[in-house]
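Ligand-bound model needed. iron/sulfur cluster.
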Amino acid sequence: MQPPAPTRPIFLGDARTGIIQIGGGLPLDHPLSKGLSTASTPAPVTVQTMTAGYTHDIDKCVAEIHKLTAAGADIVRVAVPEKKDTDALKEILNQTTVPIVADVHFHFKRALESIDAGVHKIRLNPGNITDRTQVEEVIDACKSANGGKGIPIRIGVNEGSIIERKDKQARAKELGAVFSDNKHGYMIAIMIAKLEEYLDIFYERDFYDITISAKSMDAQLVIDAYTEISKRFPHPLHLGVTHAGPKETGTIRSVVALGTLLANGIGDTIRLSYANDPIYEVEDGLELLYTLGKRERIGAELIACPTCGRIQVDLFNLVQQVNDKLQEDIIVPMKVAVMGCVVNGPGEAEGADIAVFAGDRKGIIYVQGQKIATVPESEILDRLLKECKDFQAKVQAGTAKLGEKKVNIVPPDPEGELGSGWEKMAAQRTAHTPLTIKKS
Ligand code: SF4
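Prediction:
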């Protein structure tokens, strides 16, 4: 795991939302630290998402933002394609408590109206605003917004929005040779050339509070493009695989690309994008960051076995119920293990604060390595939850410590009473017709 690449930090938010830092760590004597008076360290990586409904439908938009905030979104973006959308922003900002980003395409006036309404950041693809003076007008408005403190801008050079530039052939020739051994070299060259061009406009106007995105639906291009951009531009990077598809495949594409980059210290804020409810983008984004150790976990971490021929309870159902209940009731980052049998369960649950192993339609429950109860299958969920809540109360009161084992887990004898369930279950199984595979 590489440390985060240093970048010029940006700040967004206000007294109502709290201030969120993205990036950081660029030395104060770096030319791009101009105007900063305090040294920074890299902020934890943030999770963003975007509302799926219409922004002008104020009540629904506010409700969606609340739902995404409750799920853990640090920043929420809203689309403002029409004047009626920017007209709604003031009221939306009044009713929400998370920094809001206005997503602008094509119409620079929507950017100006959003800034007037008080949004905390603008997302702009200079590639689809053809007139340079319009881009300059937006930059100047962001610079003087927020009582003169300014608001940041995300510059997008996403694959879809730069591909039609008329000078692409010339720039590709110029830069293409640099990436000639990369199958996406042409596109990386265009992205970098465009970024240089856009950043010049921003720097000329003395504007540096910038994040950069270079998204594509191709995970490999995303990895290569952000890696090259990170070497050249010390601005925080907004990572994403765009149009990643339905959640099932989108998760894999996003986790491969973003996980690789983050492990290499590249990326300061992330957005997963699925053709699904954006709440999944938030949940999966957070889980990715927790898994990589880029964020401190809030809530329980559930460990569960995949099951096998030794399974002794309806484990899939139990795991789903435990997962839902833990999300509702537990905020302390305890590890909870749910294991299907007593053979490998103890080994797999090593390191868990609370564990249950199934045996002969029963659950044997352990707290900090100590066996505390054996309950019938129907009572496992309630008892496990009770133990989790009691343990949480003790951690919060300072009388128990996460990750501390009082004793090492002593596994029950698989040949003993709890293991005997295999024979019973095997007998039950013979009553069923075995699965046969039809041969054509
Ligand atoms: S814990 Fe038991 S049931 Fe679960 S995968 Fe391991 S051996 Fe199989």
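The chain has 14 helices and 15 strands.
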